[in-house]
Design brief:
It contains 12 helices and 13 strands. It has helices spanning 12-21, 23-28, 42-58, 71-77, 116-119, 122-143, 183-200, 226-235, 255-268, 285-295, 322-328, 336-349; strands at 33-37, 63-68, 87-91, 106-109, 147-153, 205-211, 214-215, 240-242, 249-250, 253-254, 274-277, 283-284, 302-304.
Length: 358
C-alpha cells in the first residue's frame, strides 16, 4: 500500500522490509549523526526514507543532514520529508559546499548526476564526481569522520567481455579512457582511488558500493532508464518500443532491497573493500519488455525495432554478488515482477514522479 504520509510517500511495507533486512546495521547507527550527499536523488531519497522510518518506528534517534543544490525545491516536490525530527538539509554544490557546523559520525557520499544532460557535458561531469569526492573527503578529515560509504558504479568495470558470465569485484579491464562515453565510469574509478588514498592516510574507512541497475518507486519513467520507459508505456496503454535488437542482458535490484544493502554496507561492510550491489538474475531487454507487459497485464504489443548484426557479441552487464551474500547475508528478496508492479503503483499514486529526474 502506498502511504502518502510516510517519508517519500513510499509504501509502509517497503520501508518495513528495509528495517527488517537492515536491522543490525540500523542498530549500529543508533544515535549517529549522518551526513549524506546526493540525498535528493533516487537512491538518496530511499536512504532518507528508510532512515526516517527507522527513526520513527525503531526509536534509533539518528540524525541525518542532507546536502542538496536546492533543498527548498526538493521539499516542495517531496513535502513528506518536511518538518521531520532528525532530518535537515544544507544547500550547496558538491564541489564547493561549505562544511556544516556540528559533529559527524558517518558519511554517505551518494552525489552523482546520471542524467543524459550530464553525459552531454563530460568535463563538468568529471569535475562533479572527482572534485566532489575530494571535497567530501576534506569534510571527513575536518570532522574526524572514521567511516564512509561511497556509492560507485558497475561502470568502473567497462564493457563486460562476452565470455564472462558475471563481473566480480576483482574483474580486470575498465572503461575506454579515450571514449567520452566512458567519462562516468572512469571518474568513478578515480574517486574510488581517492577514497583508498584517504583511508591509508588517516582518513575515513571507506566502503565502496558498486551499484548496477535498479528499479522501484521514484525511478524516473521519462528518462534514459529502459525499464522506466517500458513501465510508462505499459501504464499509458502504448506499445512498448525497444529501440535496440533486445538482446542485451541486464539485471535489476528493487529499491527497497537496494536501500537495505546500502545501509548494511555503511554499518557492516569492510573498510577499503568494494562490493557489487545489484541482482545477478539476468534478463534480456526484449524479455524485460515482455515481462513488464505481463506484470502489469497491459493490453499492448512489444515492438523490437533494432536488428541483430551478424556475429555481433551480446552485451551483458551482470554482477557477481557472492561477496555481499557470503559476508553480509544480503540477497535479492523482491522479485522482478513485484518490483515492476510496485514501481507502477507508486507512479499511479504520484503522477508527478513520472517527470522527476533522479
Amino acid at each position: 500500500m502506498i502511504d502518502g504520509g510516510s517519508p517519500g510517500g513510499f509504501a509502509r511495507d517497503d520501508l518495513d522490509l528495509v528495517c527488517v533486512r537492515a536491522l543490525p546495521a540500523l542498530e549500529a547507527l543508533r544515535g549517529a549523526r549522518i551526513f549524506m550527499t546526493g540525498a535528493t536523488g533516487f537512491v538518496g531519497r530511499w536512504l532518507l526514507a528508510s532512515l526516517m522510518h527507522a527513526r520513527d518506528h525503531l526509536g534509533l534517534r539518528q540524525d541525518v543532514l542532507g546536502l542538496s543544490r536546492d533543498p527548498r525545491a526538493f521539499l516542495r516536490a517531496h513535502p513528506s520529508f518536511g518538518d521531520r525530527d532528525g532530518l535537515s538539509f544544507v544547500a550547496g554544490d558538491i564541489r564547493t559546499f561549505q562544511f556544516p557546523d556540528g559533529p559527524c559520525d558517518v558519511v554517505v557520499h551518494a552525489a552523482t548526476d546520471t542524467s543524459v544532460d550530464a553525459d552531454r557535458r563530460p568535463m563538468e561531469l568529471v569535475d562533479s564526481i572527482i572534485l566532489g569526492t575530494r571535497r567530501v573527503l576534506e569534510y571527513c578529515e575536518r570532522k574526524s569522520v572514521k567511516r564512509m560509504l561511497y556509492l560507485s558504479s558497475g561502470a568502473v568495470y567497462g564493457p563486460q567481455p562476452s565470455d564472462v558470465g558475471f563481473l566480480h569485484e576483482g574483474s580486470g579491464g575498465g572503461p575506454d579512457q579515450l571514449s567520452p562515453h566512458a567519462v562516468y565510469g572512469e571518474a568513478k574509478r578515480a574517486s574510488e582511488m581517492l577514497c583508498a588514498i584517504a583511508g591509508r592516510n588517516e582518513g575515513p574507512e571507506a566502503v565502496v558500493a558498486r551499484i548496477f541497475a535498479a528499479v522501484g518507486p521514484g525511478l524516473p519513467l521519462d528518462a534514459h532508464f529502459a525499464i522506466g520507459n517500458f513501465i510508462r508505456d505499459a501504464m499509458d496503454g502504448r506499445d512498448i518500443r525497444v529501440a535496440s535488437d533486445g538482446s542485451a542482458q541486464r539485471s535489476y535490484i528493487y529499491a527497497a532491497d537496494l536501500a537495505a544493502w546500502l545501509l548494511t554496507l555503511l554499518a557492516r561492510g569492510r573498510g577499503g573493500v568494494a562490493y557489487n550491489v545489484g541482482s545477478d538474475e539476468a534478463i534480456s531487454i526484449g524479455e524485460l519488455a515482455a515481462r513488464v507487459r505481463g506484470a502489469l497485464n497491459a493490453p499492448v504489443m512489444v515492438d523490437i525495432a533494432g536488428k541483430t548484426a551478424p556475429g555481433a557479441p551480446r552485451s551483458r552487464y551482470i554482477p557477481d554478488i557472492t561477496r555481499a551474500r557470503s559476508e553480509l547475508g544480503l540477497d535479492i528478496w523482491t522479485s522482478l515482477d513485484a518490483a515492476i508492479r510496485r514501481t507502477a503503483a507508486f507512479a499511479n499514486h504520484n503522477p508527478v514522479s513520472r517527470k522527476l529526474r533522479a
